[in-house]
Amino acid sequence: MKKSLQTCIVCGRGADKRTWNNLAVLVCRNCGLTWRESFDLSEDYYVKLNEGRANLDTQKVAIRLRNSEDRFNTIRRFLPRAGICDIGCGDGSFLSILRDYGYLKCWGIEPSEYYHKMTIDRNLDVIKGEIDEILNISKRKEVHAITLFHVIEHLDDPIGSLEIMAESLRKGGILIIETPDKDASIQKATDHKNELIYPEHLFYWNEKSLCRVLQEKGFKILKISRRSFDWKHSPIKTSLMRLGMVKSLSKGNTSLDIKSQTDKDVVVIKDKGKNFFRELLRILLAYLVRILGRDDYLLVVARRI
Ligand SMILES: [Zn+2]
């Protein structure tokens, strides 16, 4: 995968070098798209990822399902009743939710053996493969929607991948992308020292760069929203950081509740329910973050035109 880009893949402009969380990145001077200076992951990185690792414990599985159900509720009015392909479906939690709600003919594509095995155990229809498998699926089946949750930031050729998705969807087909928002308030509060900034994330998108590239590739933007991993259960301190009321106090990496593919992936909520008022405050702050649009992820719904 070794590759390095000097100009922005979205707008062609030059970029400034920065260091985020000990990683060298380049920030586009025009649209703000940010990318790692060097893409140094091996070709088969995701195929080999988690080899020999034990399955997720039941608590992590439950939190991921809860997060997927919240995401589903955010986008359900845009989802067709059948023919949804979740690319990079991970452990299949979103596909499980679709099945629970009676959606038919939904598939996944997942490169990692570890996650693919989990989807088989869950009886889900998932192909082990890379993103271009969607072209084979679309030749055999009608794909009405493609979802990409925390995938686009991992791709070394996101423009090429968006072209593949545009080709796989017919006119009117829906594309839904969720990715960390590089302009999110948590990035400012932590000076980019958090778990969203790490070597697997090759590109860091914002609303401007993502919407522009989608429009150029033949999509109309239907909805832009923001959410965080399992946001209703966010700790008080995390909400205060998202609201810009405190800066990260730790010198090291700030833990966020993200879907990552490492052992640190789901942080157990520590300060939940110490007493009623504290819990009430926690919930109010989480909702305030939501209302003010200060969540960590960008969620974009687009239609193929
Ligand atoms: Zn740019």
TrEMBL record:
<dbReference type="Pfam" id="PF13489">
    <property type="entry name" value="Methyltransf_23"/>
</dbReference>
<dbReference type="InterPro" id="IPR029063">
    <property type="entry name" value="SAM-dependent_MTases_sf"/>
</dbReference>
<protein>
    <recommendedName>
        <fullName>Methyltransferase type 11 domain-containing protein</fullName>
    </recommendedName>
</protein>
